[in-house]
Amino acid sequence: MNDIVALGTLPTWDLSDLYPSKDSAELASDLDVAAREAETFASNYKGKVGSLDGTALGASITEYERQQERLGRVMSFAHLVYAGNITDPESGRFFQTMQEKVNEIATVLLFFELELRRLEETDLNAKLEASKCLAKFWPWLRDMRAFRKHQLSDEAEKLLLEKSIAGRSAWVRLFDESIAELRFPFNGKDLTETEILDRLSDPDGEVRREAAQSLGTVLGDNIRPFALITNTLAKDKQIEDRWRNFEYPISSRNLSNFVEDEVVDALLTAVQAAYPRISHRYYRIKAKSFGVDKLDYWDRNAPPPDKDERIITWEAARSTVLSAYGNFSDELAEIGGRFFENAWIDAPARPGKASGAFAHPTVPSSHPYLLLNYQGKTRDVMTLAHELGHGVHQVLSAQQGHLMADTPLTLAETASVFGEMLTFQAMLKETDDRVARRAMLAGKVEDMINTVVRQT
Q1: Last residue of a domain, one of 146, 177, 200
Q2: Phi, psi (degrees; rounded to nearest 5) at 343
Q3: Does residue 154 contact residue 114 with C-beta atoms inside 8 Å?
Q4: Residue 371 belongs to a domain
Q5: pLDDT for residue 106
Q6: Which residues of 341-352 are buried (b: 16+ CB within 10 A; e: fewer)?
Q7: Residue 217 neighbours by CB distance under 10 Å
Q8: Which residues of the chain have pLDDT under 50?
Q9: For the chain, how many structural domains are there in total?
Q10: Per-residue b or e along 397-427, where b marks 16 or more CB atoms closer than 10 Å to that residue's CB
Q11: For residue 70, what are the contacts with CB-CB under 8 A and spacing of at least 6?
């Protein structure tokens, strides 16, 4: 049976909850209103933020939050349209146009956070104590002001913001589009990146070998442009980090995640020290099960030799994940169910679509969307559970408002991995077959090695 047929009907998302279409009157109106209100906001507050009392400052942040949410809705829509078909020139043009329009408006509003960061701590604390309206924004103020000592002059910050869409964002877009356009020859067909990577976990060793060789050949043929993109992005970051006085390349990311460099260094040291007793030992055990002394690299994520990899239909995946969520919390299952009942998930793997998977929170006045490339494997069910964990978290955090709904990676991944492990434990509990259980445990160990060890 054709695998696509075996998967059942896969859902695609409906983005009309954000805007009816790329050329809708609602989208054009939001951009016009955003531009006018940004100019009014700047006229009312630019150069005056430090002189506002607590109540007035709270009111100004409330207005700023409303404007940021409107811009966030526009860019969420543009990003999701683009992710759905990265190689489509019209989608790329639309995404670029929205970036330029929103960047222009964001430049007008830039002064606000710059002035908030310049407030003296004692002055801000006095205003916070005097105003409940302002006090509710304390978590956002604290996190935003953590970058205070790395802030540049207003002119430099404005230049960096205006140039961002012609700098780093443009190089990232070039990489995404280049990867999406690549095709990998395999058994007389040209496969996408998602499809060729899926073959690397095929039960047939010859399929894995041919897939790995095709992947390596095509990527090798494109090494020059990818090297240029990587080196340019690295140099761009090095220059900005130097201007902002970040001590190490990782320091800016650590600060955005609100963890100290020393904590991350300790994590890296601990993981690296554990290589011999965890990943090295696991791969030796796996090599033995394959009857070889050393695994070929294309067998690193291979299923056990005696495992029959069945196709898991979309309906079965939905039922499994929601049941696992429900066993822990009816509320989690109810919120998770909304994603399936409504068109909030885009599941099929198709040419031109962004690879991998993500959960996009959009804005609190709407709802999140999930992008998947569902292939019907156990790992795909885990990915669904993982991204749904993000989605449920994003639905719940929306009540905090646009400025405080976002979370650093260190917290965001807690919800997603929790949902994934709920589902894994449920599937493991329901599986009596010894071979199948061993395969599931091996797959989970490999997922954790890929996440924790290979990225460290």
Answers
A1: 146
A2: -90, 65
A3: yes
A4: yes
A5: 98
A6: eeebbbbbbeee
A7: 12
A8: 1
A9: 2
A10: bbeebbbbbebeeeebbebbbbbbbbbbebb
A11: 30, 33, 34
Residues in the chain: 456
CA dist 215 and 251 (Å) reads 33
Q: Indicate the pTM of the whole model.
A: 0.93
Q: Last residue of some domain: 121, 146, 171?
A: 146
Q: Which amino acid is present at 333?
A: A
Please enumerate, as own/partner, the contacts of 238-242 that have beta carbons within 8 Å and a separation of 24 or more.
240/160
Q: What is the CATH number of the domain that holds 29?
A: 1.20.140
- Confirm whether 158 is domain-assigned: no
Given the structure tokens 């964001």, which residue do they identify?
Answer: 106
Q: What is the 3-state secondary structure (H, E, C) of the chain?
A: CCHHHHCCCCCCCCHHHCCCCCCCHHHHHHHHHHHHHHHHHHHHHCCCHHHCCHHHHHHHHHHHHHHHHHHHHHHHHHHHHHHHCCCCHHHHHHHHHHHHHHHHHHHHHHHHHHHHHHCCHHHHHHHHHHCHHHHCCHHHHHHHHCCHHHCCCHHHHHHHHHHHCCCHHHHHHHHHHHHHHCCEEECCEEECHHHHHHHCCCCCHHHHHHHHHHHHHHHHHCHHHHHHHHHHHHHHHHHHHHHHCCCCCCHHHHHHCCCCHHHHHHHHHHHHHCCHHHHHHHHHHHHHHCCCCCCCHHHCCCCCCCCCCCCCCHHHHHHHHHHHHHHHCHHHHHHHHHHHHCCCEECCCCCCCCCCCEEECCCCCCCCEEECCCCCCHHHHHHHHHHHHHHHHHHHHHHHCHHHHCCCHHHHHHHHHHHHHHHHHHHHHHCCCHHHHHHHHHHHHHHHHHHHHCCC
Query: Residue 1: what pLDDT?
Result: 45
For residue 26, tell me if it sits in a domain. yes
Interior angle at CA 120, CA 116 and CA 122, nearest 5: 125
Report CA-CA distances (Å) from 72 to 50, 68, 113, 369, 450.
26, 6, 16, 14, 32
* pLDDT value of residue 410: 87
Residue 95 amino acid letter: F
- Report pLDDT for 455: 79
Q: Domain residues for 39? A: 15-146
Beta bridge partners of 359: 370
Task: For residue 437, give the CATH number of its domain.
Answer: 3.40.390
380 contact partners, CB below 8 Å, separation of at least 6: 312, 317, 372, 374
Looking up tokens 């007389």 gives 188
- Please report whether residue 249 resides in a domain: no
